[in-house]
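We now fix the convention by which a protein and its fold are recorded. Think of the row as the fold of the chain written in a discrete alphabet. Here is one such record, which you should read through line by line.
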Amino acid sequence: MEYALISKKLPLDIVRSHAVKAGVTDIEEARLMGQIFCNLSDEQISILSKIPDLKIKKLKTFRVNAAAPKVMLSSYAHYMPLSENVWSVFNGVRSLFEPPITGSGLTVAVVDTGIRKTHRSLENKIVHEANFSGSPSADDVFGHGTQVAFAVGGGSHDDELVGVSPDTSIVNIKVINDFGIATEDAIVRGIDEVCRLATSAHESMKPRTDKLWPNVINLSLGAPDDGDEDSPLRIACRRAIQDFGLDIVAAAGNSGPNMTTIEIPGTEPLNMTVGGVKTQYDIEIWERSSRGPTQRGDVKPDFVFWSVDVRMASHRSNTGYDVMSGTSFSAPMLSGLTGLLWEAGRREYGENWVFKWTEAREVAHEFCVKPPDAPVHKGNTYGYGLPAVSRMMDELKRVPFSADTDWLFQLMMVLAMFGMVTK
């Protein structure tokens, strides 16, 4: 598939009929996203370009946002780390509650290279999978999606590593092939599948905490910013957020330190774009973390998280671990953190309490930290900064909420209190 046919006014079936009349035969579609994908000749492009309100978009190629593995480990238990394990930070956060919070109720769709679901830290965590990559199976052959899934919510095994939210469910959507390349139509169809799951759960009157109701889409992949706000992937991201109520977390990219290097889909303003910092000891930007602004002038990223020498499940065996670097792995930390914040809020204020980054971002300056010399407001290197998770959780436990109070107002109460603590 080389082109997408998109219209804001024409129904998808009408768009398809125009394509068929023009002689197009190899048609794929993302029905919920309102997009058709096909190969077009010059003559067919000429015919279809004359149809009012129909846009023809050439599809882009995407790749993973990760550096090569630095170390391959057969067992974490016998590894002497070069730096402190970042996962211990989240372990401390989970332990602020009794019993500890684990991210239960969250489902994250990992739209990536597939997942090695037999790895002992990911066993029984994959609740649904689909393969749009063109490769034979949804398994992780290239190596990336397994690490991303672990960062979101890898479970414990004896003394092994644990991801951010170890009881989070994972939807495995393979869109990147076994050579590390994804076509734009594959990613859009993957997002379409996630939205289909969310729609089915909603229509079946399942609670948002149901394992088959995805809440977050993680996109740790990218392509150079071309400034097109109506590219197929950016349109799909907006529809997933606005029409289906999902949060989308995207990696900023690894093209720093130059400015204007944020990659698609991190360039989409509605997405939560995550850059990378080095360690938890000081908030220093990773030199390769992409910076804003975007080609259209939007300030990005939104947040930063740790991205250097992160230890995660390996796709090579069921017991091994890799050490990886890249904003690919800071993004799923934010995705997984959704589960901890949401579960903490539900436990304190009832099952109807919902946490969404698209709303929390409105008051992000109250709960993020960054270096003293960074801009006070959102900037093109650190965004709002790194979420100060422990104190945020502590305040979440202490602020009284009312069931009659607007959710965002409640969250602002929490974060205003948190801001007073950290300043």
The first strand starts at residue 3 and ends at 6. Residues 3-58 form one domain. The chain has two domains: 3-58, 63-369. Confidence is low (pLDDT under 50) at residues 74-84, 400-405, 412-423.
